[in-house]
Design goal:
Layout: H1 2-13, E1 37-39, E2 48-50, H2 51-59, H3 63-75, H4 83-95, H5 99-111, H6 119-131, H7 135-147, H8 155-166, H9 171-183, H10 191-203, H11 209-218, H12 222-244
Antiparallel strand pairs: 1-2
Helix pairs in contact: 1-9, 2-3, 3-4, 4-5, 5-6, 6-7, 7-8, 8-9, 9-10, 10-11, 10-12
Length: 245
């Protein structure tokens, strides 16, 4: 009973949506110099661009520049903060497939800090980012289906999103998979899979996994632990191939 309560507590603590800075959710953006100029990531030249140059590039349809300008308006960097304009520019970039814009729009609607909270729009943008390869967007969709945020609670779909995210190397998703297998949520209770995913989470840098893996390990026979260890090797190999591919 005690181990179940511990797992439940840890899971609840780490089902927060993954966000980070609006201008740097996972892939980064240009570096603001504090001088009315920004490092050019739109053309890949690395030259210093003025705000006017960046906006001209955005007006011309460059998705990277549109992302930068949208981020400037949302953060109030070099321009008065204006969420409506920020969203408009991010939407232009997102429509061209810019993952950062898709993800940041999802976070903005999910958090509802400077925009009205809208889970439907958050899910829409996370879904686009996920289809564009974002492990963090997949993780966030898993959170939404686990909690029932704007959707009907669906443990199986939550687990599927966490699994896809974890297989791309996202540690929090691997941890949550371990918890769900240990509790029998989204799939039948499976201590071998729980052990495997907790171990993977630890390899990926998640320090929380070591706090909860003990009770799961104690339930495995020597043969089961050996099989689970082989499963870990398979998962890590798959992650490496995903990252390198």
């Amino acid at each position: 009973m005690r181990s179940t309560l511990t797992l439940s507590l840890v899971l609840s603590l780490f089902l927060a949506a993954c966000s980070g800075s609006v201008t740097d959710p996972q892939t980064g953006s240009g570096t603001n110099t504090g001088t009315g100029a920004t490092i050019d990531t739109a053309t890949g030249t690395g030259q210093v661009m003025t705000k006017e140059m960046l906006m001209a590039l955005a007006d011309a349809g460059n998705a990277d520049a549109q992302f930068e300008v949208g981020s400037m308006y949302m953060e109030g960097i070099e321009v008065p903060k204006d969420m409506a304009k920020g969203v408009q520019w991010l939407e232009k970039a997102a429509a061209q497939g810019d993952l950062r814009s898709q993800f940041n729009l999802g976070i903005s609607y999910y958090d509802g800090l400077d925009l009205p909270q809208d889970y439907a729009k958050a899910r829409q943008w996370f879904d686009k980012a996920a289809k564009n390869g974002s492990d963090r967007a997949e993780y966030n969709l898993g959170v939404m289906f686990y909690r029932g945020e704007g959707v009907t609670i669906d443990m199986k779909r939550a687990m599927n999103y966490f699994k896809s995210s974890a297989e791309k190397g996202f540690a929090d998703a691997a941890f949550n998979l371990g918890v769900m297998y240990a509790k029998g949520e989204g799939a039948a209770l499976n201590n071998m899979e729980a052990y495997s995913w907790f171990t993977v989470a630890g390899i990926l840098g998640d320090t929380k996994a070591q706090e909860v893996i003990g009770p799961v390990t104690a339930k495995l026979s020597a043969e089961e632990k050996e099989a689970a260890t082989k499963r870990v090797q398979e998962i890590i190999k798959g992650i490496q191939e995903e990252v390198e591919g």
